[in-house]
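A reminder before we start the practical. When you read a complex entry, don't treat the lines as separate problems. The point of joint prediction is that each chain is placed relative to the others, so the output describes one connected object in space. Small molecules and nucleic acid strands, if listed, are placed in the same frame. In the example below there are two entries. Take a minute to note the order of the lines before looking further.
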Amino acid sequence: MTTEMAPSAPVAPAGTGKAGTRAGTPAVQRRREVGLLSGLGHVALAVWAILVIAPLLWTILASFKSNTEIFLGNPFALPKEFSFDSFARAWTEANVGRYFLNSVLVVSLSTAGTMLFGAMAAYVLARYPFPGNRVIYYLFVSGLAFPVFLALVPLFLIVNNLGLLNTYTGLILVYIAYSLPFTVFFLAAFFKTLPQSVAEAAMIDGASHTRLFFQIMVPMARPGLVSIAIFNIIGQWNQYLLPVALMQGQGADAKWVLTQGIASISTSAGYEADWAALFAALTLSILPMIIVYAIFQRQIQSGLTSGAVK
Amino acid sequence: MRHGRYPFIIGFLAIPVAIYVTFVIGPYAQAFYLATTNWRGVSANPKFIGLENFERLLSDDIFWKAIRHHGLLLLAMPLLTIAIALFFAFMLNVGGGSRGGVMTGVWGSKFYRVVFFFPQILAVVIVGVIFSRVYAPDDSGLLNGALGLFGIDPVLFMANPNIALWSIIGVLVWQAVGFYVVLFSAGMASVPKDIYEAATIDGAGRAAMFFRVTLPLLWDTLQVAWVYLGIAAFDAFAIVQVLSVDQGGPDGATTVLGMEIYRNAFSYSQFGYASAMGVALFFLTITFAALTLRVSRRDTIEL
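Here is the predicted structure of the whole assembly.
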């Protein structure tokens, strides 16, 4: 629309007559620039949207195809018939169902633990001055500066010595431990902003410190708690390095989490050339995310970016 | 009121601090010690060997390869991600021009924002496995299938050492852009609208608006983005492990330090040497973060 008038640009259009030649030419130039830029911009946006959607859609469609269709057919063709065979294979033989439930179990307990312990520590560190308070606070925050790879070998040895290798308990405790630095850092800042007067009133009414925390402070800190809970759920659900280091060896595969399971299915799909089952496994792990994202899109965006916005 | 204050403080801190010290601080402290031993395997006894591991590291080709890959990742990934995300964020927030004095995004902004962000919530592993099929070396792959329509021979995205790392960078950028679009959008939304109004009245076009108004006011957010992406560039373990040929191949063409640490620790049981690599990675990360914050320090524009 705007680009059509570009050829006539050197001539000042009649519409801008009032402003005269002095202001007319820059205005037209600007409009042309705007037209070109937004034209290019629209194309770029649409192309990126296709780039994002295409691999996901292709994966979901391919999971309904047979192996021959995937291997010999046109990759852009729709499935000849929607077959759920590959889903059955992925769920039972490749154990996607089990991995999925393992992830649900581990992440629900570890996020609950992270939130409880993180909020407790952050609350005390934010609102109760005592000797050593800052030392403990910086001990937690310093954890943000270290790459997990540095701890990998000693962590493996410690978990092994505690007899927690290949156990849910071990993995959950480690998830909690590595989520604490950011959780404490974020929530301590949040608890600091809560009004002192409410706390004082409650104390005068005879509430204990513990009751004050659970019945008054936690409900007041809800927005912050929700953001950080989402941040932790997604972070722990997607964790790969820790489970792959701590859930290995014989018989460990029964306790694998979803990310580990998918990585292993990907390797074995290569040997057995069962791409349909791999695509089905991928679809089973993407679809729940799409549904959750569709419902909580706003909260997820603000939860994940909360770390970067001070 | 003071009654029970200290029991309460101790009661609330005991468990979190115990978990944290056991599984985080303990291992980090031990890593520096382990790096100076020749410990091989759970049953063997560690022997102190001083800086021998680090000498070995300096003459290890694969270590230098990994460092070079981190260098490339550190340059290409943040640059591409930030450039693309900035452009999109600008289009989605200011690109629609001013409407009633308020800067608006282009048509469909909301839809684009929702779609672009989605890859961010998928696990890197899932994304890696999806792209292992997208990059499949024959016509069954999405990309080679598309190239085949134009009669182009299949590209060996992961098997060709010259493009394998770039293919991995492509996936990382694909996943990260949406997050930074949302992050930069938040930054742009906090720019007071009268600044845009003033710029419009002064006759600033969209390009001038972007370079003279949006970019300087977004400097802090850009710095945060650069540090985040830089730290991500020192990781890349999961994507390399699931997507590359032979976990870091072909012939080490895509390997990263995380991959080598994992391999040395759990495949070769060289615990001491793996820890030395961990220490090297730690100093690289810290140096990068300190340098970035120093170099990019600029007077903040007070709004």
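Discuss with your neighbour: The mean pLDDT of chain B is 85. What might explain this?
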